[in-house]
Amino acid sequence: MRYFVTAIGTDSGKTITSAILVEALKADYWKPVQSGYPRDSETVADLVSFPVKIFPSSYEFAKPASPHDSAKAENKIIELAKITLPQTDNHLIIEGAGGILVPLNDQDFVIDIAQKFDLEIILVVNLYLGCINHTLLSVRELQRRNLKVKGIVFNGVSNPESERIILHHSGYQELLHIEKEALITPLIVQKYAEKIKNIL
């Protein structure tokens, strides 16, 4: 299985979700474009219970910003054609950057990586006032592109009515709800991995 983890925005919980999926499937991990420090790949490696295979990013930048901005700060341009899918016989979790329409350059967006490789999407939704609108706009774009979506991972303090209306209008299934945890540790990741592994 190859899943592309994306979200309705930045700091939504993609990296924690990716670690949970890696743990559940004992999968390999790849983040095509990384901006800023610490690297998300390092966080995933620290949170799983086994020596995960991490593939090198196609692009890495120092500035913690949108990929197109981070690249520009180093006088570089991200080329979608130069992003190539790692070859593995194992399951692979691919983590996007920010939300689905975060720009890679003046033409391409993060979601174009998933479209290029025909990857199944897992959409991370962090629960806050305004998340319904942001989620359904993201859903509309995924549907417009006819992308395959495995389901939604909710992240944060439960809001049953927000969750219900998002699932109702999207037609997607809920895969997991990550509660607001005081600290994310490998044991917490293992707990959620147990909950989701039979759905994947």
Automatic annotation (TrEMBL):
Its cofactor is Mg(2+). GO terms for cellular component: cytosol. GO terms for molecular function: ATP binding; dethiobiotin synthase activity; magnesium ion binding. ATP binds at residues 11-16, 40, 95-98. CDD domains: DTBS. The active site is at 31. Signal peptide: none annotated. It is found in: Cytoplasm. Mg(2+) binds at residues 15, 40, 95. Pathway: Cofactor biosynthesis; biotin biosynthesis; biotin from 7,8-diaminononanoate: step 1/2. Its main location: cytoplasm. It holds the Pfam family AAA_26. GO terms for biological process: biotin biosynthetic process. Substrate binds at residue 35. The keyword Magnesium applies. Keywords: ATP-binding, Biotin biosynthesis, Cytoplasm, Ligase, Magnesium, Metal-binding, Nucleotide-binding. The keyword GTP-binding does not apply. Its EC number is 6.3.3.3. It catalyses: (7R,8S)-7,8-diammoniononanoate + CO2 + ATP = (4R,5S)-dethiobiotin + ADP + phosphate + 3 H(+). Catalyzes a mechanistically unusual reaction, the ATP-dependent insertion of CO2 between the N7 and N8 nitrogen atoms of 7,8-diaminopelargonic acid (DAPA, also called 7,8-diammoniononanoate) to form a ureido ring. Belongs to the dethiobiotin synthetase family. Homodimer. PANTHER family: DETHIOBIOTIN SYNTHETASE (PTHR43210:SF5). This is ATP-dependent dethiobiotin synthetase BioD. The gene is bioD.
